[in-house]
Every structure is written in C-alpha cells, then in structure tokens.
C-alpha cells in the first residue's frame, strides 16, 4: 500500500459515496430538512471510484489500497475509527483479494473497524448471494438496506429493501451472521 492513487480529490462522479456519507452523518439542526443517522459526526471523504471512458464509475484494488494507506497515515489527525465500504462484487466464488484483506486487517490492528454494504443486486442476482468483501471473515459487519413500510394494524415499521442482500444458510447448515445491521436505504431526502 504505497498510496500512489490520489484519493484526496473528492469531487463527485457517481455521487453514491456522497449520498451514503449524508445518510451517515448529515449535520442536524441546520434547517436543511435532513439529518444523518449519526448526525454531526466527522466524515473523511475518500474517493476510490473514477469515471471510465464510458462515463461509468470504476475502481480497483490500487485505488482502495491507496485509500487505506491514506486512512492509516491520517488516522490520528482525523480520529478515524470506522471505514464504510459501500461497494462490493456480487455473486459466489469471487477470489479473495489479498491486498484488500491486508489493508482492512492492518486498519483493524490499528483500531479501525471496517463495515461493508451487504449488497444490493437490483434484481440482477437472486438474493441471498455472496457479496465480496462483506461476506468475508475480515469485515466486521455488513449493512442491509431497509425501507419504511406502512405496516398492517396501523403501525409503521421497516422492511428489508427488496433487492438488499441478507444472511443465507451455508452448505453445512450454519446461518451467516454478518448481515444483521439495517440502515435507511429508500426515500432518502437529497439536498
């Protein structure tokens, strides 16, 4: 992890990361009409996706490893304690990425927790299915998206978003336990 990719330039390309950062930590009590679930927390924006020639957001291990190098270098300066990864590779049988796993393991040794999105396959794959890196042993937890639901009996509730990935039963009969956190995922106000 030499930090060779510039991750400090954070202008939006697909704006997914910006939206997720707002869901996590949008400032409260500022008359903007939205507050993050952990409002008023600090965010260190790090860009790992760039637009390719087709204007599609893409990333690779070099970008992500550079991001973790930046995190490790600035962890004390910014009091970095949690890394959110809102990306993944869908489907079963993905080869583990040793560089990514080492970056996450080094951060964990430094007291930085990595949380990953559970996966949101948009109907492309039948859920549940694997999502890398959230289904890997080195990620602490994976977050399912949920949506507010008008429940029966005049009670409001939440329900897993229809394409959000979830725990599955493994071949040996055990049930995955990483995808047990839910976060807002639909009807999020953008300002």
Main beta sheet strand tally, sense and closure: 5 strands, mixed
β-sheet strand percentage: 15-25%
Which class of secondary structure composition applies to the elements?
alpha/beta
Mean pLDDT: 76
Number of strands: 9
Unreliably modeled segments: 148-155
The best one-word shape is globular
Residues in helices, as a percent range: 10-25%
Q: Helix count, per DSSP?
A: 3
Q: How would you spell out the order of helices and strands?
A: HEEHEEHEEEEE
Q: What is the distance, rounded to the nearest whole angstrom, between the alpha carbons of the first and last residues?
A: 35 Å
What is the strand and helix layout of this fold?
Layout: H1 16-25, E1 50-51, E2 57-58, H2 61-78, E3 82-85, E4 89-90, H3 98-109, E5 113-117, E6 131-132, E7 141-150, E8 156-160, E9 181-184
Parallel strand pairs: 3-5, 5-7, 7-9
Antiparallel strand pairs: 1-2, 4-6, 7-8
Helix pairs in contact: 2-3
Structure, described:
There is one protein chain. The protein is α/β, with parallel strands linked by helices. The chain contains three helices and nine strands; from the N terminus they run H-E-E-H-E-E-H-E-E-E-E-E. The protein has helices at 16-25, 61-78, 98-109, and strands at 50-51, 57-58, 82-85, 89-90, 113-117, 131-132, 141-150, 156-160, 181-184. The strands form three sheets. Strands 3, 5, 7, 8 and 9 form a five-stranded mixed β-sheet that branches. The chain has a two-stranded antiparallel ribbon with strand order 1-2. Strands 4-6 form a two-stranded antiparallel ribbon. Strand 7 and strand 8 (156-160) form a beta hairpin. It starts with 15 loop residues before the first helix and ends in a 7-residue tail after the last strand. The relative contact order is 0.15.
């Amino acid at each position: 992890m030499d930090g060779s990719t510039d991750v400090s330039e954070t202008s939006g390309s697909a704006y997914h990361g910006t939206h997720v950062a707002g869901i996590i930590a949008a400032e409260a009590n500022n008359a903007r009409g939205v507050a993050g679930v952990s409002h008023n927390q600090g965010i260190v924006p790090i860009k790992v996706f760039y637009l390719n020639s087709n204007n599609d957001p893409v990333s690779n291990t070099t970008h992500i490893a550079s991001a973790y190098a930046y995190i490790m270098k600035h962890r004390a300066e910014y009091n970095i304690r949690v890394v959110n990864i809102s990306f993944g590779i869908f489907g079963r049988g993905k080869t583990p990425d040793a560089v990514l796993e080492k970056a996450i393991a080094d951060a964990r040794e430094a007291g930085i927790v990595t949380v990953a999105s559970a996966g949101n396959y948009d109907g492309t794959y039948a859920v549940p299915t694997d999502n890398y890196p959230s289904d890997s042993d080195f990620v602490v937890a994976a977050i399912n998206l949920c949506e507010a639901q008008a429940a029966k009996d005049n009670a409001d509730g939440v329900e897993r978003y229809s394409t959000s990935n979830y725990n599955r039963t493994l071949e040996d009969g055990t049930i995955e336990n990483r995808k047990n956190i839910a976060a807002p995922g639909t009807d999020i106000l953008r300002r």
